[in-house]
Structure formats: structure tokens, C-alpha cells
Write a structure and sequence with these properties.
The chain is globular. By secondary structure, it is an alpha/beta fold. α4 packs parallel to α5 (158-178). It contains nine helices and seven strands, in the order βαβαβαβαβαβααααβ. It binds nicotinamide-adenine-dinucleotide (NAD).
């Protein structure tokens, strides 16, 4: 790709939860499109591995050890990113986990852990990046990794559904407050993607529903898609590139569903 054709040339991005799955794919694509990328993750070794992969391909990246639920870690990680890579233009708030349990069986500690990672993490990352973006005065793009579960509910996923719905509210508020600074905020809502996060919940769903693991994929996860297919990390990364490269406030406060037609609106 020539430099002129790169969509994120000269931009700095931080992607949380980028040691694995969807975040990793977004980081790799952003780097190919010319961005300098911070790979922020709880898993430091994994984050450094992805950064090395980008640098080996001629890009610029750093691994940042960062637990998104820790105010200090997020402040420090984003400060290090801005200092090392030249400010912050794009945040992808993506770190996440899943806990599959019915509400009557759910421990309060598990509820709080889910809300802490998905919502506190998004808030802390947003606040730290907004401060840089406002100070820099060159606009910015904030992208939240929502889910089809930002739009509808499934049994056994109470805290996930609540947190993913919450991200839509946070995004819309950032859109309102950020507009004067040309900071946009949008949400990506993927359907099922076969990452470690999804693979690990298949056995639990199989047990709970008395099905084989194959049936869980076909009869639960992909039942309402238009074509019975899983969404891929590459599909989600393309949507993340679109939001990151869109330069005006015309596209802000929105959510886009990337789910093979599982949910339409
Ligand atoms: P994944 O398990 O492959 O990757 C998640 C990453 O987040 C891991 O590297 C993990 O170390 C990191 N992480 C977890 N807790 C963290 C913390 N406290 N601080 C920093 N990093 C942390 O999962 P994935 O499927 O790529 O999920 C990424 C995001 O996409 C999540 O927000 C998830 O809810 C969302 N999502 C996934 C799917 C799917 O089907 N896989 C669908 C919709 C939305």
C-alpha cells in the first residue's frame, strides 16, 4: 500500500484488549493503514507479542500492560501511549470478558466484575483519552466494542447485556460533549465471532441447554442470522477502520451492527 492510500497515516490509536481476538485484528489493520498503535491489555506478554508482530511488518507499535478497571493503570497506560507515540487520535475501548450464568445463580462479585471491565473500563479509557484529545485540539474518534447484546437480550447473559446496552448511553454522551472538540464516538455491535471469549462459553451453553456444542453454534448462536455464518474478526476490524477514518461529526453517536443480519434495525 502506498503511504498516500493509507487511511490512518499519522494517527495514533490505542486499542484495549488488543492481545487477542477482535482487538488484535483491529490493531493489525490500523497499523497496516499507517497508524501508530498501542496494544493495551491485561496480558502484557500477549500485548508485547502483537506489538512485535506489527513492528516486524514495518509498522510502529508498543505493548502496554493495562487493566482497564484500574484508574491508575489506565491513566499511566494512556499517558505512556501519548508520550511515546505522539498524542492520541483514536481509542478503541474493546477489552471484555463473558460470564454465562442465570441471574438467580449469579454471584454479586461476578456482576461487579462484568460492570467494572465493560463500563468502568470504558469510562476510564474514555476520560483519559478525551483529556488528551481536547488538549491536542485535532479532534478524535472513540469507538466502543458493543455487541448485538447492546440491542437485545439473551438468557444467561444479564450483566453482559446490561453493560453492552450501557455503552450506547456512554457513546451518545461522548458524542454530545465531544462535538465541540471534533471528537466523535460510535459503537460497533458484532454478532458471534469465534474468539477465545466465545469458544469458552460454548460448553456452558451446551450444558445449560442439553445440546451438543455443534448444536449450540447452529441452534442458538447463529439461529437468527441471514446465512448461518459467524462474523469474523476481519469484518469487525473493517467497521472499526471506517469509524476511525471518518473525519467529521456527521457520523457520531451511532451504533452499527455487524452480525450477518442476526439483528436488523
Ligand atoms: P478475547 O477474549 O479474544 O479478547 C479479549 C481481550 O481483553 C483479552 O486479550 C484479555 O486479556 C483482555 N482483557 C480482559 N480483561 C481485561 C482488563 N480488565 N483490562 C485489559 N484487558 C483485558 O475476546 P474478543 O471476542 O476479542 O472480545 C473483545 C470485545 O468484543 C469484548 O468487549 C467483547 O464483549 C466484544 N464482543 C465479542 C463478540 C464475540 O462474539 N467474540 C461479539 C460481540 C462483542
Amino acid at each position: 500500500m502506498t503511504h498516500a492510500a493509507m487511511k490512518l497515516k499519522g494517527k495514533t490509536a490505542i486499542v484495549t484488549g488488543a492481545a487477542s481476538g477482535i482487538g488484535r485484528e483491529i490493531a493489525l489493520l490500523y497499523a497496516r493503514e499507517g497508524a501508530r498503535v498501542a496494544i493495551a491489555d491485561l496480558n502484557q506478554t500477549g500485548a508485547e507479542g502483537v506489538a512485535r508482530e506489527i513492528e516486524a511488518a514495518g509498522g510502529r507499535a508498543i505493548g502496554v500492560a493495562m487493566d482497564v478497571t484500574s484508574e491508575d493503570a489506565v491513566e499511566q497506560g494512556i499517558e505512556t501511549t501519548a508520550k511515546t507515540l505522539g498524542g492520541i487520535d483514536i481509542l478503541v475501548s474493546n477489552a471484555g470478558i463473558q460470564i454465562v450464568k442465570s441471574l438467580d445463580q449469579l454471584a454479586y462479585a461476578d456482576w461487579r466484575r462484568m460492570i467494572a471491565i465493560h463500563l468502568d473500563g470504558a469510562f476510564l479509557s474514555t476520560r483519559a483519552c478525551l483529556r488528551h484529545m481536547y488538549r491536542q485540539g485535532r479532534g478524535g474518534s472513540i469507538i466502543y466494542m458493543g455487541s448485538v447484546h447492546s440491542k437485545l437480550a439473551s438468557a444467561l447473559k444479564g450483566p453482559y447485556v446490561a453493560a453492552k446496552h450501557g455503552l450506547i448511553g456512554l457513546c451518545r454522551t461522548v458524542a454530545k460533549e465531544g462535538a465541540a472538540h471534533r471528537v466523535r464516538a460510535n459503537v460497533i455491535c458484532p454478532g458471534f465471532v469465534l474468539t477465545p471469549l466465545v469458544k469458552s462459553q460454548i460448553p456452558e451453553l451446551a450444558r445449560a441447554n442439553g445440546m451438543s456444542e455443534d448444536e449450540v453454534a447452529k441452534k442458538i448462536m447463529l439461529k437468527d442470522t441471514a446465512d448461518g455464518e459467524f462474523t469474523t474478526t476481519a469484518d469487525v476490524a473493517e467497521a472499526a477502520l471506517f469509524f476511525a477514518a471518518f473525519e467529521t461529526n456527521a457520523l457520531t453517536g451511532q451504533s452499527i451492527i455487524v452480525s450477518h443480519g442476526w439483528h436488523m434495525e
